[in-house]
Design goal:
CATH topology of the largest domain: Rossmann fold
Order of helices and strands: HEEEHHHHHEHEHEHEEEHEEHEEEEEH
Strand order of the largest sheet: 6-5-4-7-10-15-16
Number of domains: 2
Radius of gyration: 20 Å
Number of strands: 16
Strand content: 15-25%
CATH architecture of the largest domain: 3-Layer(aba) Sandwich
CATH superfamily of the largest domain: Translation initiation factor eif-2b, domain 2
Helix content: 25-40%
Structural class: alpha/beta
Distance between the termini: 44 Å
């Protein structure tokens, strides 16, 4: 696995915040449950262990999950001894972990297709080459969409972001939303970030704040319900969030709570942007409300770090995502540019890989 180890070494030397990588034919994975108080790296030697890490959200975020799918397929090929049926079984297991996140599905399917005509003896070598291509492509997405999105940020802006759409949710630079914010900061723009805490897993409080601190970007933590009032006070000029999926009409499927922020932004005349990659746009999904949103166990709401935080026996509901209708979105930031309405028409420029209009 010479090429993939060379890539990983190069990225570590560039101080990327890698959520997952490979060493010695095993997967290394940062347990995001423990951040920011602990930084623990797990070693996984079986795809079943990786699938459990994805299901439990030890690794999460659309870009990181897609990357995990790539590494999982390479691990499967490495363990298969040329048996493609084992790789096919691994693909099915990986795709069954987080059904709403299309990046994982597309990545695994792309790798499966690449091995259709491959003989067993060549399986690992072919998989490694294809996985490296995907990893390089994912990182380039982050860099390019960061450049385009930074054009939407003005010097002096205070930006609200929700949940965690950063390096550890992507390929190591800034994921989706934080690629935009990080690039704007690197350009010398004096910005400030409000990060909402994001119940029930507190990704905004634990991981977004952790990354902003590492990047040196000024930030303030708020609870999820504060954003509307802060907008009304004039303390927020832009909203930039990530995406788990974008429908063909531009509806956004993202961490639950995103819709509330978008409504408040619309009411207060504040531009609301979704940062994504073309890989996360689902042209087969006609509109966002057609999706079956993942509902996670109620214990994730009633407990925090294993401790009950409500009355025993209380029931809870946790839709992991919600749907923000396209009319609330000022622009969808991609590696090809910032797509503007009419989304049902303009998103399809991506299929022909055209550079689309940016923010000016």
């Amino acid at each position: 696995m010479k090429r993939i180890y060379s890539l990983i070494q190069e990225w570590k030397e560039k101080n990327l915040l890698l959520p997952i990588w490979m060493e010695d034919r095993k997967i290394r994975l940062v347990d995001q449950h423990l951040l920011p108080l602990e930084y623990e790296v797990y070693t996984l030697s079986e795809v079943s262990a990786l699938a459990q890490a994805i299901r439990s959200m030890a690794i999460r975020g659309s870009g990181a999950i897609g990357t995990a799918g790539a590494y999982g397929m390479l691990l499967a090929a490495s363990n298969a001894n040329g048996d493609k049926n084992k790789v096919i079984a691994a693909a099915k297991e990986l795709k069954g972990t987080r059904p709403t996140a299309i990046n994982l599905m597309k990545t695994v399917d792309e790798l499966l297709k690449a091995t259709e005509q491959v003989s067993g003896n060549d399986l690992e070598a072919v998989m490694e080459e294809k996985v490296c291509d995907i990893l390089e492509r994912q990182l380039s997405y982050e860099m390019r969409l960061g450049e385009f999105g930074a054009e939407c940020i003005e010097d002096g802006d205070t930006i609200l972001t929700h949940c965690h759409s950063g390096a550890l949710a992507g390929s190591g630079y800034g994921g989706r939303a934080l690629s935009v914010i990080r690039k704007a900061f690197e350009q010398g723009k004096k910005i400030h970030v409000y990060t909402s805490e994001t119940r029930p897993y507190l990704q905004g409080a634990r991981i977004t704040a952790y990354e902003l601190e590492k990047f040196g970007i000024p930030h303030t933590l708020i609870t999820d319900g504060m954003s509307g009032y802060l907008m009304r006070l004039g303390k927020i000029q832009k909203v930039v969030v990530g995406s788990d999926r974008v429908a063909g009409n531009g509806d956004l499927i993202n961490k639950v709570g995103t819709y509330m922020h978008a409504l408040a932004a619309k009411e207060n005349g504040i531009p609301f942007y979704a940062a994504t990659s073309s890989h996360t746009i689902d042209f087969e999904l006609e509109q966002g409300m057609d999706i079956k949103v993942e509902f996670r166990p109620e214990r994730e709401v009633t407990h925090l770090r294993g401790h009950l935080i409500t009355v025993p026996g209380t029931h809870a509901l946790y839709p992991s995502f919600d749907v923000t209708p396209n009319e609330l979105i000022a622009g969808i930031i991609t590696e090809y540019g910032v797509i503007r309405p009419e989304y049902k028409i303009n998103l399809h420029h991506i299929n022909s890989e055209e550079e689309v209009m940016i923010c000016h």
